[in-house]
Design brief:
Largest sheet: none
Number of strands: 0
Shape: globular
Radius of gyration: 17 Å
Order of helices and strands: HHHHHHHHHH
Number of domains: 1
Number of helices: 10
Structural class: mainly alpha
Strand content: under 5%
Helix content: over 70%
Low-confidence stretches: 1-5, 182-192
């Protein structure tokens, strides 16, 4: 069922980038980071493949993808900041089924933000699922926007660079990435948790 939904989305992403070039990369990543499930695992590797074939410039792809992530995350942040949790939950309950987002997804992102503080904004950009929704609780908590901007920009750059590089290296075989992402997601989560634990220990030492 999930594949039935995601495949048309993947086809839409490919068509969008093919027609609009770099702005298509920016738009696709903006939509994805704003909470609508356009798979970045299609957007950036496909654009990376196009850069390998000489149609795109590699670093322009990374740049447009990174700032697309930042734009979409900022939209979600603004919704949380100005609407608060009541509005966010109302929107999710009413329209979440159309965007593959549930209250439990939001609650998971909220718990991660409350537990791991501001660093999760950086780490979450390379984490599955939670990266799409983490900006909402950040806005609700009224996190300092300058910090949000910096953490989101840095994490998005790493994420888009990695996905673009994979597409660049795999060339025409970029579509084979899909079956490996579930394994990579587990590894990425473990790495993210290690970073968070290190940060907490470092912070506790400084307080002592």
């Amino acid at each position: 069922m999930l594949d039935f939904i995601l495949q048309p989305l993947a086809n839409f992403v490919i068509s969008l980038i093919s027609k609009l070039s770099y702005p298509g990369v920016f738009l696709a990543m903006t939509i994805q980071s704003a909470g609508i499930p356009l798979p970045s695992e299609v957007t950036m590797p496909f654009a990376g493949f196009l850069s390998a074939s000489g149609n795109f410039d590699f670093w322009m792809v990374v740049l447009f993808g990174t700032f697309g992530c930042l734009a979409g995350a900022s939209i979600s942040y603004a919704i949380g900041f100005y609407g608060g949790e009541p509005l966010v939950l109302y929107l999710i309950k009413k329209y979440g089924k159309f965007f593959l987002i549930s209250v439990s997804d939001f609650n998971r992102a909220k718990k991660w933000f409350e537990k791991y503080d501001e660093l999760i904004i950086f780490v979450s950009r390379v984490l599955p699922v939670v990266r799409t929704f983490i900006s909402l609780p950040a806005g609700i908590a009224r996190m300092d926007f300058k910090k949000f901007f910096i953490y989101t920009l840095a994490g998005s750059f790493i994420s888009t660079l990695g996905l673009t590089f994979l597409g660049f290296k795999l060339g025409e075989n970029w579509q084979n990435l899909g079956k490996y992402f579930q394994k990579f997601d587990i590894l990425i989560v473990l790495i993210g948790l290690v970073v968070v634990v290190w940060y907490i220990k470092h912070k506790l030492k400084k307080q002592k």
